[in-house]
Amino acid sequence: MKSKFRTYKQTELLPNMLKESEVQKQVMQYLVLCGYLVVRINSGAFVDGKRFIRAYRIENNGKSNGFPDVLALKQGKCMLFEIKAGNGGKLSQNQKDFIELARQKGIDVHIISDLQQAIQITEKG
């Protein structure tokens, strides 16, 4: 006999188990609605002929990965968000190095796992 009750995906019952990409999308949409200029940073690379090309390089430490997922800018304020959601979600050593470097330069870097944390951060100003 077929159940009359709707079956729910795990993410509907446990919002803290959303995939990282889903949390990124939520956070970026929220920041846009709050009036931020929002940039999603991809650290990918591609091959051009025989050359391996990284999307960016951090001049201060010469690394080509470790930059946080989302850049948010508004009225002269810069915030970076590294989103670690879903299963696992540990910072790589390059991410830790970049976060330390950015914080030394006075840049707000936040490591979050859900939309609610982004809301709390932006409400603090």
Please describe the topology of this protein.
Blueprint: H1 10-13, H2 20-33, E1 37-40, E2 45-48, E3 51-54, E4 70-74, E5 77-83, H3 93-104, E6 108-112, H4 115-124
Parallel strand pairs: 5-6
Antiparallel strand pairs: 1-4, 2-3, 4-5
Helix pairs in contact: 2-4
Radius of gyration: 18 Å
Unreliable segments of 5+ consecutive residues: 1-11
Number of helices, counting only DSSP H or I runs of 4 residues or more = 4
For this structure, the CATH topology is Trna Endonuclease, Chain: A, domain 1
Helix proportion: 25-40%
Broad shape? globular
Element order: H for helix, E for strand: HHEEEEEHEH
As for the number of domains, it is: 1
What gap, in angstroms, lies between the N and C termini?
54 Å
What is the CATH-assigned architecture? 3-Layer(aba) Sandwich
Write a concise synopsis of the structure shown.
Mean pLDDT is 85; it is low at 1-11. The protein is of the alpha+beta class. It is built from four helices and six strands.
Describe the structure.
It is a single chain. With 125 residues, the chain is α+β, with helices and mostly antiparallel strands. It has a single domain (11-124), classed as 3-Layer(aba) Sandwich (Trna Endonuclease, Chain: A, domain 1). The protein is 32% helix and 23% strand. The chain has four helices and six strands. It has a four-stranded mixed beta sheet with strand order 1-4-5-6. It has a two-stranded antiparallel sheet with strand order 2-3. The longest helix has 14 residues, at 20-33.
